[in-house]
Amino acid sequence: MKRVGIIGCGVIAPTYATTLNEIDFIDLVACSDSVPDRAAELAASHDIPRVTPLDALLADDEIDGVINLTPPTAHGAVTGAALEAGKAVFSEKPLGVDFTDGKRLVDAAVENGLRLGCAPDTFLGPGLQTCRDIVERGLIGEPVAANGFILGPGPEHWHPDPGSFYQLGAGPLLDMGPYYLTALVQLLGPARRVTAAARVTRAERLILSEPRRGVIIRVEAPTHVSTIVEFASGAIATLVSSFDVAATQYRNLEIYGTEATLAVPDPNTFGGPVRIRAVGSKQWRDLPLRATHLPLRRGIGAADMLWAMGSGRAHRASDVLALHVLEMMTASIDSAETGQRVDLTTSCAPAPLLPLGLAQHTFDD
Fold this sequence. Notes:
Blueprint: E1 2-7, H1 13-22, E2 26-32, H2 36-45, E3 50-51, H3 54-59, E4 65-68, H4 72-84, E5 88-91, H5 99-112, E6 116-118, H6 126-136, E7 143-151, H7 171-188, E8 191-199, E9 204-206, E10 216-218, E11 224-231, E12 236-242, E13 252-257, E14 260-264, E15 275-278, E16 285-286, H8 300-311, H9 319-338, E17 342-343
Parallel strand pairs: 1-2, 1-4, 2-3, 4-5, 5-6, 7-12
Antiparallel strand pairs: 7-13, 8-11, 8-17, 9-10, 11-12, 13-14, 14-15, 15-16
Helix pairs in contact: 4-5, 5-9, 6-7, 7-9
């Protein structure tokens, strides 16, 4: 049994708490938030025994792992403190707000012999697992290129506190890019170089959601980024991420192979549909999804990490993967600022597919 505490009890915390409470080898024992009432509400609604200050949670020797759900600007400090306290950590994305920050955390985990994992874990869902299997079996031929689109009008239309989305280290690329870039790494392998252009379309944003409707946000991060990613395999992907688009007909992600095109489901979700259209065919074909016995919810990557701690194997939503994705995003911003291509210094192998026929809520054969 792995005893776990949640740090950061905001919008996504109830989803994690629900998932972790469904996994029989995890005991969710504590939660903490800078706003104590928020932690108390999560504890009451999800049967979490203790609400505790951050320092007390980290000092608790009986807690094996921490789920870091704080805002991105706090990821580095909280994850670093948890690793220093001897805890395994699973963090919400991104791993940090800059590459140096992320590299420091990965190095600290290695030095202390601790597990460090990071969202997104959506690639463990049956949709993206099916896509990975299709690519590995050569059903689309050699992957040549990919297109991904993350297009919308911005989180001020729906999020209760959208200000952090426009701070330095955020914006549409660092907020939503991890889903798409993680999926691309799983399907195409590691990247080697990025080129990008970016802009800030409006210096200020008006919050249109409750409870802060009418408040003005100052924009610090680029709100429209176009990135070209060159992969070590030779495939080339284009990713457009924007908070400046009122409406679009472009969705999600497509992989273009020499024999067929693969329509990938939304990388921000766990399910399908998965569609393929072969060269010469006039119709798209829906493919059956790989079976899973896991909850189709955020938190399964953390569960996989905690399970792997006992089995001794590497975990799938790893710090190495998250650092590679973080470098792709921060290098994109650097490229946009300098007008130069940026060669990447990190790499990673795609995580192994989940085995078919898993026992309920386990992660190995």
